[in-house]
Structures are given as structure tokens and as C-alpha cells.
Specification:
Main location: membrane
Radius of gyration: 22 Å
Pfam families: AA_permease_2 (PF13520)
Number of helices: 21
Structural class: mainly alpha
Subcellular location: Membrane
Number of strands: 0
Shape: globular
Protein name: Amino acid permease
Organism: Pseudonocardia ailaonensis
Helix content: 55-70%
Largest sheet: none
């Protein structure tokens, strides 16, 4: 008998798959995967300059606003994670909620977004490293028009090489590095909250001072606030990573839902306090450097805590950026593997091949790394590379999430979800499912539109201003054309990944 009790318990046989990945991720490693993708320190420090520069101290209120919306999405995902503990979370969830075209598009958008996100996250090295030591500015002295962008791409390529090698080596090494990095990040984040709290010099009332930033702008300060909110929207996503590693997690039906929700809540509380106390501890809130990539929250830490101590925390931020990039790369690999295993991608058999020694899909690790570096190379001369690449990545994630939450809501209205098979041992929203699902859909649609809106502050001038619509539209169109004309005719689990039937020879 080749179908083991372990396989049956984890549900892979139920979905028609055999256990080909190594199941070795525990509770903390699963939680760490979600936390490292969200990455409190990476996100808050990478785009603080953008949010504060546009919205001033009031920008902080976008943090709880984004949390409420994303928590509703996370609650929906937690319910799905308990029911479908399979690799490639968004793709496999959509496959069970909608038709093949919708689910394929969800997977395609999420996969493409993961690659673009990797390219966006690794750029954060450039925001932090030169503030640690001027020698980390690899091109020029940082004052030239292209110094920042060229140096950022070089550092990004170096980091992608590291994440590629680690992911190709195996999930155990990835989990150890990720868990260690997250432990360091959480300790540093809590200490940072405490130390910034001790150094507060402004009253909380400053959080209501718009400083006339909306004067003369369309929509007044509210219009400015919506743009500044991108800085918060960039941080709180990727919590589904814990479920994407479901086939490698011990007891995933219970572990993954808890990990998803803990990751979102921990990120909200700790990240929100860092932003809050950082603003209140800033020696001079009118310093123009706070709204620049060369200053930002890093500058506040250095000013408020002093050089040596401040730089210790900057080192912790570098660690956070590293494990965040590693988690994003890992999530992209699992999604590519999940789609390839269903023969839903070109050369599916090669992409879904598991290295017999390392128990991990090596080709997707290398391919994603190469494409991410190419994205950086294409954008190397673009002054708005940070905000443009980051915003496009976030929008695609929101669209992919909508391709899960919308079909889920449709099934709820039809009475087809959660259905008669409700196992009380696993996470369930119960009667709150419908209102939470509605909020998740409305929030996702509104934020995706807000993020994609053509603004000079986000995307730059000329054609670049429309990059979100052009790039995402092109990715969706090209993908759908291939799927409808060719891909859909070959869908089906590859024989080598099919679950063996009772009594069948292994």
C-alpha cells in the first residue's frame, strides 16, 4: 500500500497529489514564513520616506486602515488554508472556488507578482546599506541622478543570487535561515519600539497635523492621503506564504490558518508602534530628509538613538530585508511548482521536477532568480524605480487575492460555500464569513484601483505614469491568450505527481 496514513492525514491524496516535497516545517517556521514575507522592518523602513514625504505625520492612520482591510482577506485565507493545505495557495484555492480560467489567471498573476515583488524587495538594500557605511554606495557618491538606481540594482542582484542558492539547496536550509532571521527581526523590532518610545519628543496630537500638504491638490488632503497609503499597503500582504508551504508543513490544517493570522496581527501591532513612535521621536518633523530615500525612518533611528546604537538596528533591518527576499522567492517557487504539477505552465514536467537529494524544485528557483534580475536591469535607468516596481508588484498581489475572494463570495451567495462538509476541528468564520468576505472584496478592489491610479508622485512622468495598467494588462492578456489557445487543453496532474491508489505499486 503506497498511500500512507501521513499522506491521508495531511489531505494530499484527497486532492490527487502524492507527497513529493519534504514535510519538515514546524509551527514557528510556518509563522516565520508569513512574517518574513510581510517583513515589518523591511516594509516600514523601505517606504516610510514615501508615505511621510507625501502625507506627513497623518500618514500613520493609513496603517490601521490597511490592517482592517487585509485582516478580512487574511481571515478568508485562513479558512481556505485549513481546507486546502496544498502548495501554491492562491492558485489551488481559486481552482476549487472557480473555473479553470479564473484559477489559472489567479495563479499566473500571483506568480508574476511574486517575481516582480522579489525585484522590488531586494531594492531595499540600497535604502539602508549606504546609511550604515558610505562605502556601500557602489556607484558614485549617491548624489547623481542615476547613482541611487544603479547601486540599488547591483545590490539587488547580489541578494537574488543568495536567495536562489539557498532555495535551490533545500527547504530545511531555507527554513533555518528564515526562522533565525525572523527571530532577530522580532527581537529588534520590539527593542526598537521600546527605545523609540523612551525617546518620544512630540505629543500624539501631531498625528492630526496635515501641515497643509493637501493645499491645491485634487481632493485636498484626502487625495494626498490615498497616495501616502501606498506605503502601508506595500507592507501587509504575503501572509498566504504560510499556506503555500502547506505540503512541507507538519499538521498544516491547523498550523497554516493560525500562522496566517498571527503574522498579520503581529505585523500590525509591532509595525504600527514602530511607525507611531518613530514619528513621535523624530527630532525635527520638518526635516526635508525624512521624505527622501536617503533619509526616511532610518534617519530618525540614527538621530534619536545615536550613531552606534542606531546602526545596530540598521544591521537588523538588513537581516529583515534578506529573509523577506528569501520568503518571497520561496513563495514564487512553490506557486510555479503547483501550477507546473498540473501541467498549467509550458514545460510543466521540467518545472515540477523535484531534486531527489534536496527534495525541492531547483529549476523554478533559478528561473525566478534570473527573471527578477532582468526586471532590475530593465529598470536600471528609471529614477522612479522604487515606487514604480513596488506599486506594480502590490497591485498584482491584490488582483490575485481578488481572484480568490470574489469566487469565494459568489459561492457564499449561492450557498455552495462552506458547504455541508464542515470539520469543526479546523478554522471557520461561521456566520461572520459572509460580511467579512464582502469587506475583503470591496477593500481589495478599492485598494487595487487606488494603487494603479496614474500619479506622477508614484510612477513618474510620461508613459511611465500608466505602467501599472500597461504592464498588468499585458501580463494578463499574454497569459490568457496562451492559456485559452493552448494551455487549457493540457491541464491535468502529471503522472509522476499523482496520488497512488490503494494497493497500487509505488
Amino acid at each position: 500500500m503506497s498511500t500512507t496514513d501521513n499522506e491521508s492525514e495531511h489531505g494530499l491524496t484527497e486532492f490527487g497529489y502524492s507527497q513529493s516535497l519534504e514535510r519538515s516545517i514546524g509551527k514557528f517556521a510556518s509563522f516565520a514564513a508569513g512574517v518574513s514575507y510581510i517583513s515589518i522592518l523591511t516594509g516600514t523602513f523601505q517606504l516610510f520616506y514615501f508615505g511621510f514625504g507625501l502625507g506627513g505625520p497623518v500618514y500613520w492612520w493609513s496603517w490601521p486602515m490597511v490592517f482592517v482591510g487585509q485582516l478580512c482577506v487574511a481571515l478568508c485565507f485562513a479558512e481556505l488554508a485549513g481546507r486546502y493545505p496544498v502548495a501554491g495557495s492562491v492558485y489551488n484555492w481559486s481552482k476549487r472556488l472557480a473555473g479553470p480560467t479564473v484559477s489559472w489567471l489567479a495563479g499566473w498573476m500571483m506568480f508574476t507578482a511574486s517575481v516582480v515583488t522579489l525585484a522590488a524587495v531586494v531594492l531595499a538594500y540600497q535604502v539602508t546599506l549606504p546609511q550604515l557605511w558610505s562605502g556601500f554606495q557602489l556607484v558614485g557618491d549617491g548624489t547623481g541622478d542615476t547613482d541611487f538606481g544603479y547601486s540599488a540594482v547591483i545590490w539587488g542582484a547580489i541578494l537574488i543570487l543568495f536567495t536562489t542558492l539557498v532555495n535551490a539547496f533545500g527547504v530545511k536550509l531555507m527554513a533555518r535561515i528564515n526562522s533565525t532571521g525572523v527571530f532577530i527581526e522580532l527581537i529588534a523590532a520590539v527593542l526598537l519600539v521600546i527605545i523609540l518610545g523612551i525617546n518620544i519628543v512630540h505629543p500624539p496630537s501631531i498625528l492630526f497635523d496635515t501641515k497643509d500638504l493637501g493645499a491645491g491638490q485634487p481632493g485636498g488632503y484626502f487625495g494626498v492621503f490615498l497616495v501616502a497609503a501606498i506605503a502601508s499597503a506595500y507592507v501587509m500582504y504575503g501572509f498566504d506564504t504560510a499556506s503555500s508551504l502547506g505540503e512541507e508543513t507538519v499538521d498544516p490544517r491547523k498550523t497554516a490558518p493560525t500562522a496566517i493570522l498571527r503574522a498579520v496581527i503581529a505585523s500590525f501591532v509591532i509595525g504600527g508602534l514602530i511607525l507611531l513612535f518613530g514619528i513621535l521621536a523624530a527630532p525635527n518633523l520638518d526635516d526635508p530628509e525624512l521624505g527622501k530615500t536617503t533619509g526616511g525612518l532610518q534617519l530618525i533611528v540614527l538621530q534619536a538613538l545615536g550613531g552606534p546604537l542606531g546602526k545596530v538596528f540598521l544591521v537588523c533591518i538588513v537581516v529583515a530585508i534578506t529573509v523577506c527576499s528569501l520568503a518571497v522567492h520561496t513563495a514564487g517557487i512553490r506557486l510555479m511548482f503547483a501550477m507546473a504539477r498540473d501541467n498549467a505552465l509550458p514545460a510543466g514536467a521540467r518545472l515540477a521536477k523535484i531534486d531527489p537529494k534536496r527534495k525541492t524544485p531547483v529549476i523554478p528557483a533559478i528561473l525566478i532568480g534570473v527573471v527578477a534580475v532582468l526586471i532590475l536591469a530593465v529598470n536600471i535607468g528609471t529614477p522612479a524605480i522604487f515606487t514604480a516596481v513596488t506599486s506594480v508588484a502590490v497591485i498584482m498581489i491584490y488582483v490575485a487575492y481578488l481572484l480568490v475572494t470574489i469566487p469565494m463570495l459568489v459561492k457564499r451567495f449561492r450557498g455552495e460555500y462552506p458547504g455541508p462538509r464542515t470539520d469543526r476541528r479546523y478554522f471557520s468564520l461561521g456566520r461572520l464569513g459572509l460580511p467579512i468576505n464582502i469587506v475583503a472584496v470591496l477593500w481589495g478592489a478599492a485598494m487595487a484601483l487606488n494603487l494603479a491610479w496614474p500619479r506622477v508622485e508614484v510612477y513618474g512622468e510620461g508613459v511611465l505614469k500608466w505602467i501599472a495598467f500597461l504592464f498588468i494588462g499585458a501580463i494578463a492578456l499574454v497569459g490568457l491568450l496562451w492559456f485559452r489557445l493552448r494551455g487549457r487543453h493540457h491541464l491535468g496532474t502529471l503522472p509522476e505527481h499523482m496520488a497512488k491508489q490503494m494497493g497500487e505499486a509505488p
